[in-house]
Amino acid sequence: MSSRKTDASEARATTPTLDSATADLVVAGNGLLSRRLLLGLGLGGAGLSAASGALGADFSMPAWSKQPGPGPSGYGQPSRFAADIQRDPGRANPLYPGGGASRTPLHQLRGTITPNGLHFERHHAGVPEIDPAAHTLFINGLVERPLAFDYESLLRYPMVSRTQFLECSGNSGALFRDAAVDGTAQSINGLVSCAEWTGIPLSVLLDEAGVSPEARWISAVGADAASMGRSIPLNKAVDDVLVALFQNGEPLRPEQGYPVRLFVPGWEGNVSVKWLTQIKLSKEPSQFRDETSKYTDTLADRSSLQFTFPMGVKSIITSPSGKMQLRTHGLYQVEGLAWSGAGSIAKVEISADGGATWAEAAIDAQAGDKSLARFRLPWRWQGNPAQLISRATDSAGNLQPTRSQLLSEKGALAFYHFNAQQCWAVSSNGEVKNTYV
Amino acid sequence: MSNFKPTLALALCFTLSAPLAVAQQILESPQLGNTVTQMELSELDLIASEESVLPAGSGTAFQGREIYAAKCASCHGAEGLGGAANQPLVGGNMRSEDAPIRTVGSYWPHASTLFDYVRRAMPANAPKSLSNTEVYQVIAYVLYMNGLIDQYKVINAETLLALKMPNAGGFVDMSASD
Q1: What's the structural domain count of chain B?
Q2: Mutate to test the interface with B, among A230, A292, A296 (most CBs of B within 10 A)
Q3: Looking at the structure, do residues B67 and B128 belong to the same domain, yes or no?
Q4: Which domain does B14 fall in, by range?
């Protein structure tokens, strides 16, 4: 406690000279500072309440240090003081029973792994309550031997684990609209999450069924009330697709497909069919409703794109972000998440002046293949209006497009696969708001 | 392309007299699936496509009118124009000046999707409650409301797949560009 007090005093003492101390570290307009600063000054604690120090005045022994707490529990829950960290399921629509989505509170989380209870959801007819003992996964169609697997049998297969993102192709779709929606990182961008997925390579089960030479596609169907189905090219199915049974080490949550789901790395989330019950091999796609009527984009020339599977390179700033409030001038960390369906993240750049100048952000170590990468860069905010933007480059060399580039390519009728750069405007009084540049 | 035959691989392992390889093969691919027949899967396999066989049965729009009124109209509207669910089934024009309204008639490229989707997922509050005959009847009514067939046209596996949808040529398959 006493050393912490000393640190705080020192921080207060150095605040008046912040400008001079960081003058040589400015790397881009409007106060962006070199990532070298992250190694030197240790900004770890500088969040949105920043420089002035948020220590309370009460240094008496707290009550919880003077009496024993409850003992061990069967399944741990978050602290009640963190109970406000929630998905946003919205109100139920009686005309669409069980349908809808909830979004991950990206702005309230750190690291790159999404807790299972906060992984985004998208359901087409609600979450089925599946008894694994009564669930079957069958493989049929163009195979030598149609096979049926029960859950206990699947558990006996060797499994592999991959830490990878899942993003709904409708994520950030509101940013196609003409008027910039006043939302948070969660409400605008929260249909992306990242987990360690563990399961059986689909190729192992397909080999056991014996794929016929003429097969080119698989159809994956869930056991929910919508029996939601999607077609996937066979070459992807045998490349890196998993029949996943575990998420972050525990059996899948019901809303993530318990007891078994498909996990299709890097592709739009809808093809990672939950509650997986059927894999059917065929020559052609099955033309399900969710790959014809939905999950397709109409271009300006009125042709429509179908089977637009990979998720493009993308980054978003999670802090400062929409509806946050900067309370004091001083040092901040601009941080966020980046990912790409084409590989790993090679570089993230940040601008504080609406894209006029850019500085390269530091990327945390876990920037693996098709996983979330966390980036950050120090920023000195003196009360000038600012426009914070991030842009990512992936390992395949793809650069995240600007919104106008994406719109000129896809037109105003599109809804899915919005991966353009997003801008948070910071006003002189510290309000943070989604905007277009 | 995956065309590996486990039994063949096992035989190969034996001829090479490598028990270790056999054990490894069993561990990596334990072959715990039970062989099933398409007949046994008939209730679970609901895929209706140009390649999969659509079930027996048939219906006309004239027969489907009552089912539509009782089970679909409350969400999609009496004339299929959207109703409370704002999911129009009828109308729209992909060539319109404004943002086109995308419906079964204006947007859906394949007639088979209509049978497939209604059978697996509709009505939203009681999916899979319609018989195959009722599905044929009610999709005939949706096609009729779109002006694609007359009300006495018999819709069955054959006539449904023969129906060319107005926007059939409107899609670009992006799967090969990955």
Answers
A1: 2
A2: A292
A3: yes
A4: 1-33
pLDDT digits 0-9 by tens, A377-398: 999 999 999 999 999 999 999 9
Sign of the alpha-carbon torsion through B51, A270, A407, A390: negative
Q: Does domain A314-435 match CATH 3.40.920.10? A: no
CA–CA dist A119, A103 (Å, integer)? 7
The CB density around residue A391, as the number of other CB atoms within 10 Å, is 23
Cβ contacts of B54 on chain A, cutoff 8 Å: none
Q: Is residue B42 part of a domain?
A: no
Mean pLDDT score across all residues of chain B: 91
Are A188 and A172 contacting, i.e. CB atoms less than 8 angstroms apart?
Answer: yes
* Residues A301 and B94: beta-carbon distance below 8 Å: no
- Helix residue spans in A24-73 (DSSP H): 36-41
Backbone angles phi and psi of A113, in degrees to 5: -100, 130
The C-alpha of A293 sits at a distance from chain B's nearest C-alpha, in angstroms, of: 6
Same domain, B17 and B97: no
In this structure, the answer to whether residues B124 and B76 fall within a common structural domain is yes
A75 φ, ψ (degrees, to nearest 5): -145, 115
Stretch A332-353: mean pLDDT: 97
Interface subset of B 22-61, CB within 8 angstroms of A: 27-38, 41, 44-47, 49-52
A8–chain B nearest CA distance, Å: 53
CATH architecture of A122-174+194-295: Alpha-Beta Complex (3.90)
Contact between chains at B102 and A305 (C-beta distance less than 8 A) = no
| Residues B63 and B145 both lie in one domain | yes
